[in-house]
Specification:
The complex is a heterodimer of chains A (335) and B (416).
Chain A lengths: L1 H32 L4 H9 L6 H15 L5 H13 L14 H37 L1 H16 L2 H15 L19 H38 L2 H8 L4 H37 L5 H10 L3 H29 L1 H8 L1
Chain B lengths: L1 H7 L3 H23 L17 E4 L1 H6 L3 E2 L5 H9 L2 H13 L12 H11 L11 H14 L8 E6 L6 E7 L3 E2 L8 E4 L10 H37 L1 H16 L2 H12 L6 H10 L3 H15 L2 H8 L4 H37 L12 H10 L2 H4 L6 H25 L6
Antiparallel strand pairs in B: 1-6, 2-5, 3-4
Classes of the chains: A mainly alpha (335), B mainly alpha (416).
């Protein structure tokens, strides 16, 4: 049995590495696919309004060096890869003389602490509601379904804005922006921790609310499908207790939902980034926005790479856990 | 075909979603025919004018006057200039300078004003009062002047030669104009935005462009997804492996990341609505590929397909006649979802400042972006963003409702 799981694990690990390399290549190649000299284009955009010719030339040189545009494409790729592996993403344009690595380092913790708990909470609540809707039917289903459809189609930033206006601006229960009070210095005391907790609420719940709807709809369909399956009818004929059958049904319905979560992570991360932007939460999403606003290419490139890597790691983790939960995987791999 | 359509239009959810979508489409098509104003014309000087009917002041002076003796007109006039907060503040001042609290009645305007006029002195120092508060009282005092006046106001015109003011007409407090007789009255149902543009006209143009982006992106994504899904599912083998490799790859890599990278690389100048639509279409085909492939694989070994193969039909013929009709409903459903998610993708991209360039056409995402940049949400200017959100939600909601309806028609297990 364990041998079967090991095979599954290495299969997934291999797939993870391939995707990682590919994502890295895409991150490298997309800006270069555009016609013209990418460095010249980037510098031209960055140097808008700069009158200092030496400054422009210095930027140009730094980027020619970072990307190595005067060398063949393959060599460029290895230079870029070597720099990235060393954690060298160059200097940020909009926050000079801060390095991109530093900006990423200070924001990545916020993003991880916000997004993963929020997405998982949303997933759990959504699945519970979906399962209840499938089982209870009638009134609960009639009310929950339209709300779920509406909520899952409501744009992520819309949910964030509405929560902010209601609970932040009108009721003034929670602060509307930032990760902690603007008058505080990060340190370990109650005032700071309390400030972080209150700032955490609105972005957290806006991500949770957005992810509930879609999960509830998916779980409801799966559970209804399973409830009508032959084995349920058979079990009923056998006189097995309802409670026990329900246990099996929801376990079976859960499995595709876990794969669904793995596949939807990319989309969900996108929505969660937007929530960060609306609340000016100091995570990667907000850093990315600053990059776009400041025409800061190194920052954008590094942020997108980080987001992709985080999603890939999360995805990999879910699939590894899935192998433990679903007995069929071990069975199939062992054959 | 006819039977299928009949069935589809018997689904309550589908009809509801379909009617919302048709209503939006009709508004988007008809409104510009009735009101052909350019959507991005700047009409207002200043930001965020409230929704309402704007009556030209100059024209209403010239317009014929009617005398209406309405009860409570004076009270309303005073109330509009002296709200309850101001009354409380006046009481606070009077108490602070030593008037007994029971002598002050903030509801009795005449009495309150009389007390105020006798006791207010801007030079009085009150302990603990900030300078800002003192300035507020000075402004309040200035605005109270002539509050209880009953005389008519005089409209005067400057004599061009002498420069002296000459009386032109007199406006009594009971004078009214009929809004229909005023030459210039402009209805702004949703006010103006941060640039001073009519929000309603802009919103309808934006909805049109966003729908166009959605349809173009949806059609591109569906055709790529369908083609690849058919190839992967029907041919199988190495073709299937290659296509599935890329499909799995793009499923895992966040779509927004690809969109951001591509949009930024294209650059502001070349980023039109069509370009954005094409980019969104090119980065969202893989869901359709996955769904179509799964369907085709389950169909591939059905008897009628095998029969067709034995009869020597070409692959194209088999796909078109023996496979496509069976998956048509899935493809339509996938396309509806693609369209609605493309509209959301455009909005997400625009929020980041990577949407279509801003000078020619508005999109729903851009309107949201502008409102956010100018802090409409924290300033309480709801008309600049709530209608946009509602429009986006209505479009995507109607499409998903249609999709759920279709799902229930074609997938009997899900029926109630």
């Amino acid at each position: 049995m364990l041998k079967g799981y090991r095979k599954y694990f290495f299969n997934k690990l291999g797939w993870f590495l391939v995707t990682l390399v590919f994502a890295f290549i895409l991150n490298f190649i997309l800006p270069r696919l555009m016609p013209g000299d990418p460095v010249a284009a980037i510098v031209a955009r960055m140097a808008q309004g700069m009158s200092d010719a030496t400054g422009v030339r210095a930027i140009y040189q730094q980027y020619t060096e970072l990307f190595g545009t005067n060398k063949p494409m393959v060599e460029q790729f290895f230079i870029y890869m070597r720099n990235v592996l060393r954690g060298d993403f160059g200097y940020s344009i909009s926050m000079y003389p801060r390095t991109v690595a530093d900006a990423i380092k200070s924001s990545i913790g916020w993003t991880i602490a916000l997004q993963f708990p929020a997405i998982i909470t949303g997933w759990l609540i959504g699945n519970t509601l979906g399962a209840l809707a499938a089982y209870l039917k009638k009134g609960f289903d009639k009310v929950l379904m339209p709300i779920s459809i509406f909520a899952s189609n409501f744009p992520a930033f819309g949910m964030a804005v509405i929560l902010m206006v209601i609970f932040g601006v009108t009721l003034e229960w929670f602060p509307t922006s930032g990760g902690y009070g603007f008058d505080l210095i990060p340190r370990f005391d109650w005032r700071f921790i309390w400030s972080v907790i209150t700032h955490y609420q609105l972005p957290f719940w806006s991500i949770v609310l957005v992810s509930i709807g879609g999960q509830a709809i998916g779980m409801r369909s799966m559970a209804i499908y399973e409830l009508n399956a032959d084995y349920v009818k058979y079990a009923r004929f056998m006189g097995i207790k309802d409670r026990k059958i329900i246990g099996y049904v929801f376990r079976n319905a859960m499995l595709p939902q876990i794969t669904g979560l793995a596949m939807a992570l990319g989309t969900m991360a996108g929505g969660a980034l937007v929530a960060e932007i609306v609340f000016s939460y100091p995570g990667i999403g907000y850093t990315l926005l600053n990059g776009v606003m400041g025409q800061d290419y190194p920052l954008i490139s590094a942020s997108t790479l980080m987001i992709t890597i985080m999603v890939l790691i999360a995805n990999f983790t879910i699939e590894i856990l899935y192998g433990f939960i679903d007995p069929r995987i071990k069975a199939v791999q062992a054959d | 075909m006819k039977h299928t359509l009949q069935q589809v239009f018997r689904s309550g959810k589908f009809i509801f979603g379909f009617s919302i979508l048709v209503a939006i489409l009709l508004i988007v098509i008809i409104y510009p025919l009735v009101i052909p104003d350019p959507p991005l014309a700047i009409i207002a000087q200043g930001t965020f004018f409230e929704p309402g009917i704007y009556v030209n002041v100059y024209d209403s002076i010239i317009a014929p006057k009617y005398t209406l003796n309405l009860e409570g007109a004076a009270a309303k006039r005073i109330a509009s200039r002296l709200n309850s907060d101001d009354r409380l503040a006046m009481k606070e001042w009077l108490v602070a300078v030593g008037i007994p609290e029971d002598e002050i009645d903030i509801e009795d305007t005449a009495l309150l004003l009389e007390l105020w006029e006798t006791h207010f002195d801007p030079k009085t120092q009150i302990a603990g009062m900030t300078n800002a508060r003192r300035n507020y009282y000075i402004r309040l005092n200035a605005s109270l002047e002539g509050l209880l006046a009953t005389e008519a106001a005089i409209i005067a015109v400057k004599n061009p030669t002498t420069g002296a003011l000459e009386e032109k007409s007199v406006v009594a407090q009971s004078d009214f104009v009929n809004a229909n007789k005023v030459a210039n009255v402009r209805l702004l149902p949703l006010g103006t935005d941060n640039f001073g543009r009519d929000v309603l006209t802009e919103l309808i143009a934006a909805a049109r462009v966003s729908l166009q982006i959605g349809f173009v992106a949806g059609i591109i994504a569906t055709s790529i997804g369908l083609t690849l899904g058919l190839l992967a599912g029907y041919i199988g083998g190495i073709v299937d492996d290659i296509i599935m490799f890329f499909t799995n790859l793009f499923t895992v890599i966040p779509g927004l990341v690809l969109l951001i990278l591509i949009s930024f690389s294209i650059g502001q100048e070349r980023r039109g609505a069509t370009t954005i639509a094409i980019v969104i279409g090119l980065t969202s085909w893989y869901w359709t590929t996955r769904a179509v492939r799964a369907q085709v694989i389950s169909l591939r070994n059905r008897d009628h397909v095998n029969l067709s193969k034995l009869s020597g039909h070409s692959i194209v013929h088999i796909i078109l006649n023996d496979i496509l009709p069976y998956i048509a409903s899935y493809v339509v459903m996938a396309m509806i979802l693609q369209i609605s998610s493309a509209i959301l993708a455009e909005a997400g991209l625009s929020i980041l400042g990577l949407g279509p360039r801003t000078t020619e056409v508005p999109t729903l995402g851009l309107m949201m972006n502008w409102a956010m940049i100018y802090y409409a949400h924290t300033l309480g200017k709801w008309w600049a963003y709530i209608p946009v959100l509602v429009t986006i939600a209505l479009i995507t909601f109607s499409m998903n409702l249609m999709n759920t309806g279709l799902d229930q028609v074609f997938n009997p297990a899900l029926r109630d």
